[in-house]
Structure formats: C-alpha cells, structure tokens
Please model this.
Amino acid sequence: MDLRTGALLARPANGKGGPYAPVHNRSYPTARRQKWKMTEITFMQVHPIPTYSNLTALDLVLDKIQEAGLYLMYDMRSTYQNKASVTEQVNRIKSRPNLLLWYTADEPDGTTDPLNATVISSNLITSLDGGDGKGGAGYHPVSLVLNCQDYFFK
Model:
C-alpha cells in the first residue's frame, strides 16, 4: 500500500517482474456460469468464488489467470474460521506472483460469526504470508466486506 495515497501497488501480474504500479480494484466474480476469454476483458483482477473442490482444476485456472496478466483475489470466505484450512490454502497460494490480496469474510458483521473471527484469521494469514513466498511479516493485504445494515448492536 502506498501510505501517502492509499493506493494498492503491485508488480505486474504475469510474474515476469517490473516496477510497482497502482492496481485498480475491479474484479470479475467467477462463480457465474458465463463463458469469457481472459484476454478480452478489461478487468485487472479475478476473484474466484469458493468452493475449490478440484485443486488440479483450480491450479489450471490460476495458471491461466497469471498467463493473462491478471491479479488474483484469493477467497476463503467459506473456510476463514478453519485454521488448518487457512494454513493449507495460504501455503499453497502465497508464492503465486499474481496474488494481489487475500479475501476472508463476506459480510461477517451479523449475528452468526464470532466478533473476533476475522481478526484471528487475518493474524494467521499475516503470520504465514511473506513477500518472498516463504512466510513471515505479511506481504499481501487481507480484506473482507462488511455489511453493517443488520449489525447486531447491543
């Protein structure tokens, strides 16, 4: 993050290196059953929606996303409260050069998720993720979406 402007900066998503540049937060949710060609879209990132039941197929899709020069917003909304699953996923994905950010919870601010669940998950992800792909200080941002419309205020 550029602390002066708040912009998200990243190296090119193709994995071939290059200078850091701003990344616009526009993604394409891939849960929709639509046919599309990655080279013909104008989005900068792809946001696959879980579940990821076939890891071989997931790797093929993630490889194609990288080849197309698109960033990856990796989503763990279904499993972010499962420490073993989060650890496995972070260790599997963190070295991908097009990983832009982690996405944990989708509107957890109602009455169902524990209030500290997102913090626990974020701390775990940060402890596992490092810019060198080996873990450490935390390199990729951890994100979530809040709703707040029906937040449980007491």
